Each structure stands twice: as structure tokens, then as C-alpha cells.
Amino acid sequence: MLDWSRIDTVLLDMDGTLLDLHYDNHFWMEHLPLRYAEANDISVPEARELVIRMTDALRGTLDWYCLRYWSDALKMDIAAMYREIEDRIALRPHTDNFLRSLRQMNKRALLVTNAHPDGLSHKLEVTGIDQWLDEIISSHDLGHAKESVLFWHSLQERQPFDPERTLFVDDNLHVLGAARDYGIAHLLCIRQPDSKHPAREISEFPAIHDFDEILGVL
Questions:
Q1: 54, 70, 87: which is the final residue of a domain?
Q2: Which residues form a coiled coil (predicted)?
């Protein structure tokens, strides 16, 4: 699937790519509505509907990913609540082997994520994946979400890379579209970012279920 001789830099998303998206989906759809309902004396379905309505209005923007924004908007300590279910944080299958293989092949591996720094540091603390990464970049540090082509221009200024010799792996089709528009030559989408949800049919980009599908050619 990949000609690794043509790839120098590997850009990797975190949630839904390296880590199981179940943790985040469970937090926003189950845990947060439950805690919000308890704090505001409303039903869990009412709380869930409120959270969905508020998040849908900002989907794809930097605020959508900002834990501090949601702490202010919902009057709750979102970062602290994240830790209440940290036992659900998990690597996706074969992630550790894949990251080790990139290091052995002398590929430059960068984490590029929309995760807010507060949540990002927590997940790195739990998983330890930062030991295999050459650099970690949050969109909050660059001022633009990955859905915007401006993110990719800012990333190029911060961590120069050759788009023609770069592989980018993500589970978000809108993000992959922005990377394609910027000119990144090698793109891969994750079919099943959440282990508790069915795999998706992906036609817009080359797609894999797990990293073992490309480990064999490393």
C-alpha cells in the first residue's frame, strides 16, 4: 500500500488514530451528560441534547476542541472530569509496534492533534506514546484547527516538512481533505476510530482498519 522509500515524515493524529476514540465519545455522549444532569437537576437525555446542540454549533472549530472553552460554557471542570474515566484511555491495535517501527526505520514521526493541551498531556501521561514521537503539536498552539488549511501553513513554519514525502494518518475526513488541499501526497484514513462502533466504509481516501496492515512493509 505504501512505498516507504518515498516517505520521510509521518504526521499522526491522536484520538481515533493512535488512541481509541471510544474514550472521547463516551465522555461527551455519556459521562458529561450524566455529570451535567446531576449538577443542574435535569434528566440525562436533556443534558445530552444540550451538549450535542452546543457542540454541533462549533464542530470543526478550535473552540470545539478546547476544554477550557467548555469548562466556561458548561460551568464544569472538564479537564478534571476527563480524569474520572481515564481507565478507558487505550491505544488502538498495533499502535505501539507501528511507532517503534517508524523509529527503527528512521522516519520522522510527529503527533499533530486538535486535542487541547490539558487533555493531550493527560493522555500522554497515561499512554507514554510521546517516547516514540519526535515532536508533538497541538492545533491550539498554532491558532487553527486541522480542518483549516491555515493549520498546515502554520505547521510548515513550525516544523518544516516536504509535503511530497509526507504521510498523514487521521480518522477525520474533513481534516484529511484540508491536508490534501495543502498538498500532502500520502494520506491514510482509519476505518474504525472507535472500537465500540462499526467500521466505516471510506471511499474518499485510502483506508486501513489497523496499523498491522502497513507494518508488514516496514
A1: 87
A2: none
Alpha carbon separation from 20 to 57, 167, 183, 218 (Å, rounded)? 24, 20, 27, 23
Alpha-helical runs (H) found in 105-165: 117-127, 139-142, 149-158
3-state class (DSSP) for residue 122: helix
Residue 217, pLDDT above cutoff 70 = no
Distance between CA atoms of 18 and 22, rounded to whole angstroms? Answer: 12
- Cα dihedral 21/108/120/129 (nearest 10): 70
State which of 40, 61, 87 marks the end of a domain: 87
Report CA 1 to chain centroid distance, whole Å. 23
pLDDT tens, residue by residue, 80-102: 999 999 999 999 999 999 999 99
**What is the model's pTM?**
0.95
**Alpha-carbon distance 199 to 209, whole Å?**
8
Is there a single domain that holds both residue 199 and residue 174? Answer: yes
150-187 residue pLDDT tens: 999 999 999 999 999 999 999 999 999 999 999 999 99
